[in-house]
Amino acid sequence: MSTDDHLAQDPLHTGDPVDAARAYLVDTALTAGSVGRVGLELELHLVDHGRPASRPSWSQVQRLVADLPPMPSGSSVTVEPGGQLELSTPPLDDVVEAVAALSLDRAVLAASLHDGGFGCAPIGSDPARPPRRVNPATRYQAMERHFAGVGCVDAARAMMSSTAALQVNLDAGPEAEWEQRLDRVHLLGPVLIALSSTSPYLGGTTTGWHSMRQAAWQGLDPARTDRFPAAAPAQAWASYALAAPVMAVRDGEVATEVAGTVAFEDWLQGSGPVGRPPTLNDLDFHLTTLFPPVRPRGYLEIRYIDALPDRWWPAVAAVVATLMDDPVAADQVVDACEPVRDAWELAAREGTRDPLLLRAVRQCLDIAASRAPAALRGEVEELAELFASGRSPSSVLRGRIEAVGPVRALEEESR
């Protein structure tokens, strides 16, 4: 079949390509249904216990991943640009099942790595080792080069190789509630950033930011990292995606960076980065290079939460699911968070040092503790007690780093 025949059959080339792309984006943004299911994704920094100050090589990462047993709960294991490992559960019926599944697979992963002399630290940023990409995938090469071309390579390298997240994936819910749910998950953003931060150091240094992971994300191109409006969310997502710059063009398994800022819509209209017109596969790949704090993938992918050690991440997962999906908690949380609705940078910079954010965090934890599932209520109450005592995960980790140094602290968190 000729190239022209392939294009004639491609959904983006059966009519006006911009209209076709917009229709596809609107149709696939969110899936209507009930709420309650939860998927969890936890990223972890890989640590060689024999050489904790050095980032493992790509060959070491490949060997370790190849030797992993199947995860008993069905989580997939993938590798991020800096050699971080990511555990991703399938969607499960509720947050209790999701936490149990991730906890089991996390334990299996830790045991397997320990047998090889390695560990993995689920914290928001690598406090010790300089940012450096080790994964040679052309996607990540192209990403690094594109960000260099638009003037944010330092933040990009830190984001790619030295940060880790806890992603909480929730059902989109009934279509009539999409706008309300997206607005609520954006409203929670500053509070959950202040609550979850475990990234007071990055690469051996600190700027004093409460969350250096968020500092890296906020240093990137806002055209692909900013929030999109909650009003008419599927249509807003389509506009956001079409206006975002093309980062890379993929042909087969090879991705090549795009210099400059060419919107995907411009490519559809014939002013693209390469001579050929874009296909639906190009659009799908483009969507994987967009990183808003909440990304619609049929469900809501919440991306703004730091990875946390095992003593805290189950509580944070329960807090998110409760405040989003429990109707009583969801109503109560609006008043608690409204005073800090747009305080995203303040939350990253100051966290709970800011009195309004501290108050909102404590209120949200109290709400979550009163409404969380019984199986996770104790974990949420313990997290609430931590903040009531004037501490936070970020301050606890900062204190440990200052006591023993970044390398030792990283090694401790990987045990």
- Helix-strand string: HHEHEEHEHHEHHHHHEEHHEEHHHHHHH
CATH class assignment of the largest domain: Alpha Beta
User: Unreliable runs, pLDDT <50, ≥5 residues?
Assistant: none
What structural class do the secondary elements suggest?
alpha+beta
Query: Considering DSSP H and I runs of 4 or more, what fraction of the residues is helical?
Result: 40-55%
Number of helices in the DSSP assignment: 20
Question: Radius of gyration from the CA trace?
Answer: 21 Å
Q: How many domains, as an integer?
A: 2
Strand % is 5-15%
- The CATH topology label of the largest domain is Creatine Kinase, Chain A, domain 2
Sum up the overall morphology in one term: globular
Residue-averaged pLDDT: 96
Q: Using DSSP, what is the number of strands? A: 9
The second-level CATH architecture of the largest domain is 2-Layer Sandwich
Q: What's the N-to-C terminus distance?
A: 55 Å
> What composes the largest sheet?
7 strands, antiparallel
Which features characterize this protein?
two-stranded antiparallel ribbon; Creatine Kinase, Chain A, domain 2; 2 domains; 415 residues; single chain; 20 helices; 50% helix; 9 strands; seven-stranded antiparallel sheet; alpha+beta
Report on this structure.
By secondary structure, the protein is α+β, with helices and mostly antiparallel strands. The strands form two sheets. Strands 1, 2, 3, 4, 5, 8 and 9 form a seven-stranded antiparallel sheet that branches. Strands 6-7 form a two-stranded antiparallel sheet. The chain folds into two domains: about 5-25 and about 245-290, no CATH class; about 40-220 and about 300-415, Creatine Kinase, Chain A, domain 2 (2-Layer Sandwich). It contains 20 helices and nine strands. Strand 2 and strand 3 (about 85-90) form a beta hairpin.
